[in-house]
Write a structure and sequence with these properties.
The protein is α/β, with parallel strands linked by helices. Helix content is 39%, strand content 16%. Bound molecules: (3S,4R)-3-hydroxy-2-oxopiperidin-4-yl beta-D-xylopyranoside.
Length: 359
């Protein structure tokens, strides 16, 4: 096995351009394995047949998550049907390449099928539907999916519980009762697969702000009362090219101090693009790399931060382009041709330096 010092030497030579990028020798995955850290990415089942996609994926990552394949709108095309084909494909790929699988997600206000969102169900019906869905999906993937985002994005920017079909429109029976419906989902999830780690996953609550305070308070309350929760997923879709790194570190540390794990779950760092699809500012790829570096370092600094996952890995396939209507993009560590960007080098360097930051 290559020593850390020799890895860093080789990396330095690659970064200054003396030797070409040696895919097989150095990878994010190899570097993360040293610290038993999970380095993952969101994947699209349809892309697994693309040779370069599959090759980069299995070389660079030891964990995957379905970008969409395990969401309600794909798993539940209609009320009576469970369709696990895409999710199963992702699991098969992971198993063939010795990768772990994160599950995403069992309850979210968005990405629900029409029949559910517009179905005008009563709270009692919704409660049954949700309980049954959690049980069915988790049992199907028991032993294959090691951790689930049980609840996704349930809070708004003020830290209040968001309106949703599950909470209060009409909800599963706990409308107006704050986080009680979230608690119920976690209890059902533990019942369905006692081995799986159960995560609350959230956006824009990564730094210290009202939302992250609310997440913290909820998890502290759950832990005190024995509500089954094992971790918090910090999404980290970064779209401003500035990140309060100290705030992120402090937030990771306080969550970990509650005795739950932290996973960075959806990291991407988008930059403004011109109409032709080029970076508007020439330094942005470097600033982007700096943010990736800070996030990896912040995670490595807390032993409770056990996984870092990017939301895709190549600019060829990323949700940012469509969600920003082309105004932003180039958010991921590999470019459209699967070549490493400065961000890739930064992540690799930090992972190689490891938890104790050996250099
Ligand atoms: C996004 C996917 O990337 C898209 O393919 C899909 O069309 C919409 O959802 N937060 C989440 C993810 O938790 O599920 C979202 O994924 C991105 C924001």
């Amino acid at each position: 096995m290559r020593t850390r010092a020799s890895q860093i030497r080789t990396l330095a030579l690659i970064l200054v351009g003396f030797i070409p990028f040696p895919g097989e020798l150095l990878s994010l995955r190899n570097a993360a394995d040293h610290d038993s850290l999970l380095i993952g990415t969101a994947v699209r089942a349809a892309q697994l047949s693309e040779i370069r996609y599959a090759a980069s994926l299995s070389r660079e990552f030891n964990m995957v998550e379905s970008e969409d394949a395990m969401k309600w709108w794909i798993v539940r095309p209609n009320q009576g049907t469970f369709d696990f084909r895409q999710g199963d494909e992702v699991v098969r790929f992971a198993q063939a390449h010795g990768m772990k699988v994160r599950g995403h997600c069992l309850l979210w206000a968005r990405d629900n099928p029409e029949w559910l969102a517009q179905g005008h169900f009563t709270p009692a019906q919704l409660s049954l539907l949700l309980r049954d869905h959690i049980a069915h999906v988790m049992k199907h993937y028991a032993g294959q999916v090691f951790a689930w985002d049980v609840v996704n994005e349930a809070l708004d920017e003020n830290g209040d519980v968001r309106d949703s079909i599950w909470y209060d429109r009409p909800g599963i029976g706990f409308a107006g009762k704050g986080t009680r419906y979230i608690e119920q989902a976690f209890r059902w999830a533990r019942e369905a697969d006692p081995q799986a780690l159960l995560f609350y996953n959230e956006a824009e609550g990564e730094e210290l702000n009202r939302k992250s305070d609310a997440i913290y308070d909820m998890v502290r309350d759950f832990k005190r009362r024995g509500v089954p929760i094992d971790g918090v997923g910090l999404q980290l879709h970064v779209s401003k090219l500035n990140l309060d790194v100290a705030g992120l570190q402090a937030n990771i540390a306080r969550i970990a101090a509650l005795g739950v794990q932290v996973h960075i779950t959806e990291l991407d760092v988008s930059i403004p693009l011109s109409l032709e699809g080029n970076p508007v500012n020439k330094d942005d790829l470097i600033r982007q790399a700096q943010i990736y570096r800070s996030v990896v370092r912040a995670c490595l600094q807390s032993s409770g931060c056990t996984a870092i996952q990017t939301w895709g890995f190549t600019d060829k396939h990323s949700w940012v382009g469509s969600s920003s209507h082309g105004a932003r993009g180039m958010a991921l560590p590999l470019d459209r041709a699967y070549q490493p960007k400065p961000a890739y080098g930064a992540i690799l360097e930090e992972l190689s330096a490891g938890r104790n930051h050996k250099r």
